[in-house]
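Entry: NADH-quinone oxidoreductase subunit N
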Amino acid sequence: MPYVINWQLLAPMLLVFVGGVAGVLVETLVPRERRHGAQRLIAYGAIVAGFATAAVNASAGLLGPAAAGSVMVDLPSYSSWLILLFFGILSLLLIGERTLYAGGTAFAPQAAATPGSADEREAIEKRVEQTELYPLTLFALTGMMLFASADDLLIMFVALEIFSLPLYVMCAMARRRRLLSQEASMKYFLLGALSSAIFVFGIALVYAFAGSFDLGGDVDGQSATPGLASAIALRPDGSPVLLAGLVMIGVGLLFKVGAVPFAAWVPDVYGGAPSPVTAFMAVCTKVAAMVGLARVFFVAFGGLRWDWQPMMAAVAVASMVIGSLLAIVQTDMKRMLAYSSITHAGFLLVAVAGAFQPGGSQLSSLGAVLFYLIAYGGATMGAFAVLTTVRNRSGEANSMTSWAGLGRRSPVTAGLFTYFLLSFAGLPLTAGFIAKWAVFSTAWRGGYLWLVVVAVLASLLAAAFYIRVVVTLYFTTDSGDAEVGRAGWGTKAVLAVSCGLTVVLAVVPGWLLTFSAQAGEFLR
């Protein structure tokens, strides 16, 4: 039978990839002083073109397998692509910020130079910029888009490496605290390599059971062998080999999600990486990982839900509780947001553990996850944008003591940060409240009442450390040394869009809930 590559379905992903290739050519052919403008134009153009193409294809109902059936372009794929590209361009706006850094950027002028060396000082004097960050971001986005839509475990592994490798490099490029940044990159690389090895070992075990890498099986005659779902349906009791492979694949995916007990890398990497890169990782990596995880467990392992649901529920509880407890004792803002990210991974997994698939207009587990990711992404991107603007003499002010009394000195900036934190906490009149209702309600309908109760209690615990920051901003007599720097138009745009998105989803969430309900069905 013919193996067909549908270029029209793959066009959004290919446009972003071509933008990355063009960025590499710019690094080779364009003079250094002109690269920054050229790279920004190419990166923004590629993302806008990819976003528009995905929106047009989705509205036209262009669905189905592509790339010989190894990529499934369905509504969850389009939804995740649109979310990734939307937050990807916001991340690029933060990456391109120059006003806050006196004409420079948040990144080391020469990442390969030894910190404090003569080579580094010379690069600083010449105002060298690392413009290759733009194609690296585009390549990472390409891998994330492929990961979220892969219908083949081997393609999923390749996509995992495509978006991980650029992130390893980007984490090591902080302008200040260079050694901490390089340490974060090395930890991320080593633990990421370990998780990838576990993931691919799990793929091998699953292949030994099923004889196939396909998740769903034969779709439109483009798959020569029955997929995992078909093989499991023939042997619903499974086997030790299959269950071992399932667990190992789950470990690899949960590492990228940043869930306990596979989240040891999160606080160190988030704390050491440049803040714009941290924002990109905190949002886009989680989007790709969650949609990929849902595709694997709902499509391929749906017949084994009674085996993996307790595992997901246990990981969700551990992430919510441990993430909240460790966040309370943090004194560094970026590490606090890192543990907050772990907590939110737990909330997302509540919906996955519930595995509620109504097949109608009701919100499915994946639909709830998509809505939560958008609400979480808006608040996270805005919080990190604020973080880049709050500065002291040494640069970014990450210590919580430096933020003391900021509400009196800069009420607008502190007010924005407070609103983002309240959305994280899930208080009423915020997007986070609607998002938590969405994931909790799907778990409730899926029969996991006890998990919903634990999640509600964990939400109350998580609110404690957010309110602690608010008290520091407004109700402490001490006055920190942090001030709000003059941000460029890119950072201001990110703040405006993030705040607007968080407000809109809190006030009129119905349109996005409807969209999420429609987009929450995999094409098997």
